[in-house]
Amino acid sequence: MLRNFTICFLFCLTACGGEQSAVLDTDGQAPTIEPSPYVVAAAHPLAAEAGLEMLARGGTAVDAAIAVQAVLSLVEPQSSGLAGGAFMLHFDPATNDLTSYDGREIAPASASPDMFLKEDGSPMGFYDAVTGGRSVGVPGVIAMLAMAHERHGNLDWETLLEPALRHARDGFAVTPRLHESIMRMATRGRLAQSEKAAAYFLDADGEPWPVGHVLKNPAYVTTLQYLIDEGPAVFYAGPVADEIALAVNEAAGVATLTADDFLAYEPLKREPVCAKYAGKRICSMAPPSSGGVTLLQILLLLEQTDFALQAPGSATAWHLLLEASRLAYADRNIFLADPVAMSSDTYSADDLIQSLLLPAYLAERSSLIKKDVSSIEVSAGDPIAYIGREGRQPGQDASPEPPSTSHFSIMDSQGRVVSMTTSVEFPFGSHLMAGGMILNNQLTDFSFQPIRDGEPVLNAVAPGKRPRSSMSPVIILNEDGTVYGALGSPGGSAIIGYVAKTLVALLNWNLTLQEAIDEPNIVVPRGGVLVEDDTLDEARLADLEVFGHTIQQQDLTSGIYGFVLNADGGIDRGADKRREGVVLTGP
Question: Is the model's pLDDT at 5 over the cut of 60?
């Protein structure tokens, strides 16, 4: 029966996305793609090595992505995993096809708009919402990767999962970042209170495993072996799905996640959102991620100012970037969510996305940016009016959006590119484990309050719905349609700011990719200005404060990994020094 389900599952993956037609050259033949150097940029050396191994074996960028994700699930469990979700951009130069894949988790049938409210109607405390099982959505990353693999993969799943299987069986060394994350979540979080997580991440005395300890994961070996033997469908109908549901329901005390919820999961192929900026075409993820639209709004708002004339890294340049970000985030917090929720009786989700990026609307919004003083607080605009539609403005989202997540960028020898951001949401997700994997807490990316100021919130919880995300994987194209580069970052709602900063530093300030990544993180994900600790001296802080910005310094750990292709054929590599990842290249 399971094998029959696997066949149906893979057939659905093929049928749901449609066929891609090749773009032919003037002779009526598909263009010849010359072999090129390949590259893997990921947040952990073992994950990058796994991806490079697949490319060396003749695998595609999607093949490498599967190997990278499987290893990250083991070695960076605080950030992403096979029991989480992801968004992927894929570009194929042979067909000039740029596609985005949506592997976001969905809310189970038991979910309700008030599930994160206390009896008095006030929002639950964050840790109360995260732990206990109610925060776990149906995982989407495996289904998404299976869909992409069906279209773009060469190697079999046994080959793709072999590095992760090897490291899980033989063990891997605990890194400083993993040790620090365990220590933080065991004390400030509730990791120590989760039986399976405590048994895995803590020693017999309840202390986090030290740096260098060789950690083995036999439960993950079993899960990977199921995937090898039965295929990806086993994650949605079989022992893996059963084990996840059991762990969630035992923690919740009721059956919140059922077999039907797993069977109902469907990965989606979506159109990416793209816009021209600084002589390039920037493409990212459409809703349910808010990342792409908000990122493009920031960039296009900047083009309505004299940002390009400002000295690179100057206080005025940063001020304009912050003000454009405030406006874009204000729109984001009202209008962006699962596309199903974004539609109304008078307009579609596509209409709303189009209106947010209309030049006329952005010109009106950019008129609110003052070059010499901060607006401090801004409200969302009225984009629907610009496409001749009517509708009431929704309520403002109320999701905690803590920072976590991971990103990797890959190019194979045929020039196919993957830019993928992947997450379990909070560090160590729900703190629950099943099958050797951390289970996500993505349902807390929904608004805790379904109604704000008397208006329904688009990102309210509902059965089968996908929570809004900030993940912003990017592929950058040249004017002739060829690939210029790929990048992305973790960081919760600050992801959008991290990626925007890197793009303007790269494209406006003409820095190398590594230099652009190294620039200070200065973001406004919730209105106030956050400045990365120990990156601006007193004079530069004072220069920003002149504009009226109220500044708070704190740890802002981006994790940008990517590459840029130089005109001479070289690869400009970028690995965020704030994390532990690397960029590896092949011949």
Answer: no
